[in-house]
Amino acid sequence: MFFHRKAKTLVLYYSQSMGNTKKIAKRIADIKSYDIEAIDTINEYTGSFDDIMAQGKEEVESGYRPKIKPLVHDIMSYNRIIIGSPTWWFTIAPAVSAFLDQYDLSGKTVIPFVTYGGYEGHSLSDLEKQCKTTKILNPNSIQFDAENLNKMAISEKDLDTWIQSI
Ligand SMILES: Cc1cc2nc3c(=O)[nH]c(=O)nc-3n(C[C@H](O)[C@H](O)[C@H](O)COP(=O)(O)O)c2cc1C
């Protein structure tokens, strides 16, 4: 007789400016009935969009890691993690880097995704690298309209095809 450990999946995401990454994460969790939690910073980013763009640039360039709130879910009890980050200055958001510095995803299957508004740079490959796990499945980068930043640039059908595959 064979015993299979049932795959347990947690969707994690960080979403700051438009709620784009949250929207994708929620859609995954809704369609697949996966658990979901936001990665969140202790100190909120404040100011105008341009202020946050400028602060983000400084943080990315200096390798700054904001303090983040501890997760409520016990990551040890999940063997699959879906993790989503917005693109900040061609890489992932510092909050997601902070999370990945603190939490060990080794041995887990990780499905990484990023959202971006025109030029993703190396955000998806940086996310894959920073997850420090060998099992990466179906990574995806999801473009939003560069003019209308909270409008998805791919069709809902294409998004759902990817969601069905994870
Ligand atoms: C600080 C900052 C830097 C950004 N840098 C980029 C970038 O390098 N390339 C890009 O295409 N979009 C960039 N964007 C746009 C976001 O990646 C895009 O709007 C994303 O979907 C926002 O996700 P969110 O609403 O979940 O925070 C940036 C946005 C912010 C706030």
Based on the model shown, name its key terms.
20% strand, Rossmann fold, binds flavin mononucleotide, 5 helices, single chain, alpha/beta, seven-stranded mixed sheet, 166 residues, 7 strands
- Tell me the span between the first and last alpha carbons: 27 Å
Radius of gyration: 16 Å
CATH classification class = Alpha Beta
Low-confidence stretches: none
Q: What is the number of strand segments?
A: 7
Shape: globular
Bound molecules: flavin mononucleotide
Tally of contiguous helical segments: 5
Structural class of the helices, strands and pairings? alpha/beta
GO molecular function, one term: FMN binding
Protein name: Flavodoxin
Domain Flavodoxin-like: 10-166
Organism: Butyrivibrio fibrisolvens DSM 3071
Detailed description of the structure:
The protein is built from 5 helices and 7 strands; from the N terminus they run βαβαββαβαββα. It has 166 residues and is an alpha/beta fold. It has one domain: Rossmann fold, CATH 3.40.50. Strands 1, 2, 3, 4, 5, 6 and 7 form a 7-stranded mixed β-sheet that branches. The longest helix has 14 residues, at 49-62. The radius of gyration is 16 Å and the shape is globular. The structure holds flavin mononucleotide. Flavin mononucleotide binds next to α1, α2, β3 and β5. This is Flavodoxin. Pfam families: Flavodoxin_4 (PF12682). InterPro entries: Flavodoxin/NO_synth, Flavoprotein-like_sf. GO terms for molecular function: FMN binding; oxidoreductase activity, acting on NAD(P)H.
